[in-house]
Predict the 3D structure of the following.
Amino acid sequence: MAEITTNEKQAWTGGDKPFAASYGKLMMWFFLVSDALTFSGFLCAYGFMRFKYADVWPVAEDVFTHFPFLHGDHPLLFVALMTFILIMSSVTMVLAVNEGHKNNKNKVILWMGLTIIGGVAFLGSQAWEWGHFIHGDRGGIELSNHDIVHVVDADAHFYSIYDLVGVDSYADEVNISIDDVKQALLSDTQYGIRLTDKSVVSGDAAMAYLNNAEVVLGANLIRNEYGHQLFANFFYFITGFHGFHVFSGVVILIVIFINVIKGTYERRGHYEMVEKVGLYWHFVDLVWVFVFTFFYLV
Amino acid sequence: MSEQTGTWWIWRVFWILLFVTAVEVILGIIKPAVLIDNKLLGTTLLNLIFIILTIIKAAYIVMEFMHLGHEVKGLKWTILLPAIVLIPYLVFILLVEGHYIFGVL
């Protein structure tokens, strides 16, 4: 009975910790719940549009096929690397929290420093991924009915428009008109265009589709060479919103990192701030796990 | 709230996450025909496997790395219940609706 009285007293004077967690940690959790629901809203909206345009939605592994310094198609490899970087930085974050429990300042500095490096590496990878997505890969053709179609070779594999008309995609000024494409398709009929229903037409049959068509190079919020416009818009919005979380995470980590070095938490007697930023950092990793699955795998 | 000692449990979770991700990537690259041709609940077996593996990864991150599995019961369910109830509900209505609109467009 005596114990209950003390607890009640503490509760009435504000000294009680609900859920045996500190105010700061509790509020971080509540924020993360609301943020998780925000991300679910975005990903569900993506799923809605993907189901709505199921027949014309681009296949992710035809879109994200490149790896820095490697030639050829390597679908999934680069995002796998990005996932690995983020998981690894999550691990170094737990290690930092773990050392924080032991008030081991130098080890906290070491593991937090590595976490920041991981976060920056992830942001760099994402910048590369975005740069590649914006520049475009093989180019597409927008038909007069706004369907996006692609050039394919004799085996019905995607073929680059740049190669078809003989232009370097990284030249200073790239200008490919639909007439260049028409000419190239007529002069070499092994190449054709793949329509949205995945049938291939070539030669004169293809010309019938290319009236008033336009060449689309790269992707932005208005044009998207890879397929349905909403695919690009959701890609920019969801990975951008996640990337913004990573960026804020890195900034918060750096602030706490400086405080750790200055000895703020050593004087305070506990490293709870490291724990709180850790919760946020793991959440960023958690969201990526879902973005990875629903943007790149499924 | 028993504190785990040492760092072995961190590395254990790391290897699990790495292994699950590796399985996902390998399945995503080879795309076994048997998992694509067979469907369940309106999607391919492969997609279902991806989703289950994702939830396993998410559970390890939340329960171990974020330490939620070792918090008191009240806190654990305060965090988990809104997500467990609301997210599947939203997924259900939006995907059913999206599929319907695809059918009538």
User: Anything to note?
Assistant: Chain A has a mean pLDDT of 89. The CA atoms of residues 173 and 269 of chain A lie 60 Å apart. The beta strands of chain A are 140-142, 148-152, 192-194, 200-202, 214-216. Chain A has two domains: 21-136+229-297, 140-216.
